[in-house]
Amino acid sequence: WDETHFGKMGSYYINRTFFFDVHPPLGKMLIGLAGYLSGYDGTFPFQKPGDRYEQHNYVGMRGVRLCRLFCAFLGSCLVPFAYLTVLELSKSLPAALLTAFILIFDTGCITLSQYILLDPILMFFLMGAVLSMVKCNNCADRPFSVSWWFWLSLTGMNLAGAMGVKFVGLFVVLLVGLNTIYDLWDLLGNLSLSLVMFGKHLLARVLCLIVLPLALYTAVFAVHFAVLNRSGPGDGFFSSAFQSQLIGNNLHNVSIPE
């Protein structure tokens, strides 16, 4: 059922047809982009679960068997992400390998990664944020180095990605936020660290973990509204003034008073 739901929304992006959904747009935008780049023309109706795809080019949107494309590729990335995260935390190769094998042979993970779903995309950003956070923590002995800035910025980017796919991404924002508060509290208690240096640490985290994610999250919506410029099933959720900007809408180019 969900594949029918999100596959249809991927087609909406390819056809630039406006729609409304309860989830933020990033996941569906990426599904549509994957389909577009693989040659899918957005014509499959996605009317009900179980419909045959016939001659439609769906491989780019649905990883089938050994075709690790998009959702399947993102799902397969969870294994190295988990491996690297546990290795960074435990410094134990057996523990990291065990974690990787558990995911490799997890039926739920394999199944979710085969279909046109938001779950593998969401998990990619969630686990990417955790890995980036752990990597940044391990660079604490060389603050403001290139690697430190890289992992801190990547953490912020993954936070924006997680929130941009589903609002449940707030949980990883909470995790990173608590880790940051703990880190800053520890720095504040370091008597050898000047207040100026502490201020730099605080500013770096505000820029990378608050400003950057918010800017990227907002940019996702800007792209969403720029791409979907044709009238569609989501028109009725918005004002007449907004509908007048949609090509094909009955109110298109009508002068709407403030």
TrEMBL record:
Location (main, coarse): membrane
What pathway is this protein a component of?
A: Protein modification; protein glycosylation
Source organism superkingdom? Eukaryota
An example of a Gene Ontology cellular component annotation for this protein is:
membrane
Keywords per UniProt = Glycosyltransferase, Membrane, Transferase, Transmembrane, Transmembrane helix
A Pfam family cross-referenced in the UniProt record is: PMT
Molecular function per GO: mannosyltransferase activity
Tell me where the transmembrane regions lie. 66-86, 92-109, 149-182, 202-227
Q: Where is the signal peptide?
A: none
- Where does it reside? Endomembrane system
Q: ArnT-like N-terminal domain: from which residue to which, for each copy? A: 1-229
Membrane-protein topology? Multi-pass membrane protein
Q: Which PANTHER family match?
A: DOLICHYL-PHOSPHATE-MANNOSE--PROTEIN MANNOSYLTRANSFERASE (PTHR10050), PROTEIN O-MANNOSYL-TRANSFERASE 2 (PTHR10050:SF46)
Tell me the protein family, please: Belongs to the glycosyltransferase 39 family.
Please identify the protein, giving its name as recorded: Protein O-mannosyl-transferase 2
Species of provenance: Edolisoma coerulescens
Q: Tell me the gene name.
A: Pomt2
